[in-house]
Amino acid sequence: MNRFNVDYYSASSFIPIPDKDYRISSACGISGIMNRSGRSFNGEMIMKSMEIMHERGNGLGAGFAAYGIYPHLKGFYCFHMLYDDEFAKEETEEFLKKKYRIIESEPIPTRKNPRIKEVHILWRYFLDAGFAETSSEEDEVVSTVMFINEKIKGAFVVSSGKNMGIFKGVGYPEDIGDFYRLDEYSGYIWTAHNRFPTNTSGWWGGAHPFGILNWSVVHNGEISSYGINRRFLENYGYKCTLSTDTEVIAYLVDLFMRKMKYSHRVTSKIFAAPFWSEIDNAPENEKNLYTALRMNYGGALLNGPFAIIVANNQMMMGLSDRIKLRPLVAATKDDFLFIASEEAAIRVVCKDPQKIWSPKAGEPIAGFLYSGNREEKITETVALR
Amino acid sequence: MVRIDAGGLHYKVLNEKIWEAVDSGEKEIVLDNVCGQRYIGAGIKSRDIKIEINGVPGNDLGAFMDGPTIIVNSNCQDGTGNTMNDGKIIINGDCGDILGFSMRGGQIYVKGNAGYRVGIHMKSYKDNFPVLVIGGFVRDFLGEYMAGGILIVLGLEKDRDGKVIGNFVKTGMHGGEIFIRGEIEERQIGEKTEDLLATEEDLLRIEPYVKEYCELFKYDYAEIMNEKFYKLKPLTHRPYGRLYAY
Questions:
Q1: What top-level class would CATH report for the domain B2-245?
Q2: What is the pTM of this model?
Q3: Minimal Cα–Cα distance from A333 to chain B, Å?
């Protein structure tokens, strides 16, 4: 019996799913490390950064996103999968074979960790979509992910990008990192999350990061607007199935930054829209832009406290909500950009950063690869200003 | 004097070591290689203890502290001075959010800047009178729900937008005083600024604290005072009285 004195289990066939039928809120820790020259480093650095923030989680969820880890297969979509059982795996493989050529199919390597209780089959595929790389191919992959997550019972796509992967589960970050042998991977961007779910118990798929295509998102906070955001996304074919509020951010990022090709700055102003009182006081061109964004994309405004780190193969971005209800610190040292919930999480891996600062609420910090399509400095500026 | 190497220590272990030193009568404790350990100095009740911190201490530094002096030779994280009762925290760097959260007494001096919600819910009672001095700028929600004590922002460094305070200043404030050196705008504080200039008499009240700031961080007092100060007070003693009671 729960606090509302309703016995869901025997009264009806309704079985509530954590985070789907009831909300989860969290107060977590996040960290991201990027080498803007694209020089790879192994997972020990980000694990060390997360270990300092051990107290920000409670062992019910942790995860890492890593970029540049599959250079030998970088042309193929890498699906990291979470299966409940062999049936789900078989069904998924049948489905994938119809649309893709499976280049590799293998278990995700793990090592025994006394504090990690394995409950899923963890598998990865490298998939050849078979066409030239076009945006429609990416849309095709998105709908594949949506289909698997929604229709195939007990199968969940953890990540679906190229030359990247998400490793997550139930445990503390240092244990999850050890379990997935992250010390054996080398990447040039790493982001990580330490979870503190307060309303429900955590499950493997509900841990962060959340990913779609090359995007990954780690999030500290709670998205009060989850329901509105979810409905907004349904109009564009995104289905939220993983039962954690952060899932909407991953899809919103894909929608705005990939499909609609908005810059990280404009996207940030959709997520953390300036207050109307601020818009009233803004210069004319900004006033018009912000008004247009709020009018058109009100359903994508992220309400509630958040600090997020968004990444893809080219960039890493940090953003907090507009009234700074969650912490975020950034630092630079040579080619490195660091973003974390606590300064200590940066200092433990970089004793003497050249610059360390607290970004303003609602204003993005973004670092791009030097070799990327967009030669940009690390930015902390108001959109279009 | 005792030195403790905090490198790699969990906060519980480190704080136990600090308490052991306090219990054995140590008056001066130096912590080296601190990195993110929370609750340093929490609850220690003695006016003659000095703790010096090398490295970045974790959240809630000096929480519930009742007397000691803490000197931080770097930046601080969030929640510094949480519900602190008495004593002094001196920070030779910048500070995170919710500095002086629910502080009830003692003084905090920050050489550099501080984040959001500085002095949130500070309060004074009888002899307990909290004072917060920030040398640089602060961000939004300064003095939110503030109920007592003095908050001083010297604005020696300005934010990227040239401001020394953010928006939504003194939201829900119902006691105490905020002094701001430098320019402020009506929309930041929610009322006209003209009548808010601090008088000579007002400035006498903050003189000892500004002097101490200058001594601690080597600034020229006369130079600092040679600039206008604004004094912010609550608009009403019960800002929510009408909201909740009627």
A1: mainly beta
A2: 0.92
A3: 17
